[in-house]
From TrEMBL:
Species lineage: Bacteria, Bacillati, Actinomycetota, Actinomycetes, Micrococcales
Domain of life where this protein originates: Bacteria
Family statement drawn from the similarity comment of this UniProt entry: Belongs to the short-chain dehydrogenases/reductases (SDR) family.
Name listed for the protein in its UniProt record: SDR family oxidoreductase
PANTHER family referenced in this protein's UniProt entry, alphabetically: OXIDOREDUCTASE, SHORT-CHAIN DEHYDROGENASE/REDUCTASE FAMILY (AFU_ORTHOLOGUE AFUA_5G02870), SHORT-CHAIN DEHYDROGENASE_REDUCTASE FAMILY PROTEIN
Length: 272
């Protein structure tokens, strides 16, 4: 099999593709030759482009089930097919759990989980016809404590569970996978962490020493949707640069780890 990935003639739908991770996903599929449709609340000032080709935007509130379903149906009707659905839209403000209202809990669940469930259900018959796949963008918050964004972490954990269940329920025709995002260097990342120095301090807690770029997550999505991943389904692929330094190392740099290892005896495994 050739290792080249060519999505020419294939149609990809991405929720929330105007900025951040979603834009990286849209641009990666455009670079691979796909026809890409994306949605969001507001059209970006500049549409994602690659190789002289631009993605098509539709204004959709994915929390509205009717709008969500109509968007998927319109894409399939205009193109005559749908090959890939990427459920990317999501997010949450920071706040203590006990301060959240029932409406807040519902809103976080709608944007991070129910919107993906609705879009995936609407896309099923079209993906079945093309032997396509679903890719859900989740988060490291789904598998580790997420204080301050507890409902977000819980919703992303639900999305990972849905990923695994549908991978079995829809096999062998439709593949369903997830990309678990670590910290990402989006357009607003520095402002989110306060200052450039605070941003750099957070980045240093990642073993690879930096945050991911949106393009790097997009490239993994392309790989998962491609024939190179034909036997991959039900997988949750972390794109997190190795996660976080273990607390007992106190974010020790690699060089210090090597120095510590040099002080370990080769007999008892204790420091000299």
């Amino acid at each position: 099999m050739s290792l080249a990935i060519d999505f020419a003639g294939r149609v990809v739908a991405v929720t929330g593709g105007g900025r951040g991770v979603g834009r990286g996903v849209v641009e990666a599929f455009l670079a691979a030759g796909a026809d890409v449709e994306f949605c969001g609340r507001t059209e970006p000032e500049q549409l994602p482009q690659r190789g002289g080709r631009a993605a098509r935007f539709t204004a959709v509130d994915v929390r509205n089930a009717a709008q969500n379903q109509a968007w998927i149906a319109d894409i399939a009707a205009r193109h005559g097919r749908l090959d890939v659905l990427v459920n990317n839209v999501g997010g949450s403000p920071f706040g203590r759990f006990e301060a959240g209202s029932p409406r807040y809990f519902q809103a976080i669940t709608e944007i991070n989980f129910l919107s993906a469930a609705v879009a995936t259900s609407a896309a099923f018959e079209h993906l079945l016809a093309t032997g396509g796949s679903v890719i859900n963008i989740t988060s490291i918050s789904a598998r580790r404590p997420s204080p301050g964004t507890a409902m977000y972490g819980a919703a992303k954990a639900a999305l990972e569970s849905l990923t695994r269940s549908l991978a079995v329920e829809w096999a062998p025709e439709v593949r369903v996978n997830a990309v678990s995002s670590g910290l990402v260097a989006t357009e607003s990342a520095v402002d989110h962490y306060g200052t450039a120095e605070q941003y750099a301090q957070v980045a240093r807690t990642i073993p690879r020493g930096r945050m991911a770029s949106p393009d790097e997550l997009g490239n993994v999505c392309v790989m998962l949707a491609s024939p190179l991943s034909a036997h991959v389904t039900g997988a949750v692929i972390p794109v997190d640069g190795g996660g976080e330094w273990p607390a007992f190392l106190s974010h020790t740099p690699n060089a210090d780890i090597v120095q510590q290892a040099d002080r370990v005896t080769d007999t008892g495994g204790t420091t000299t």
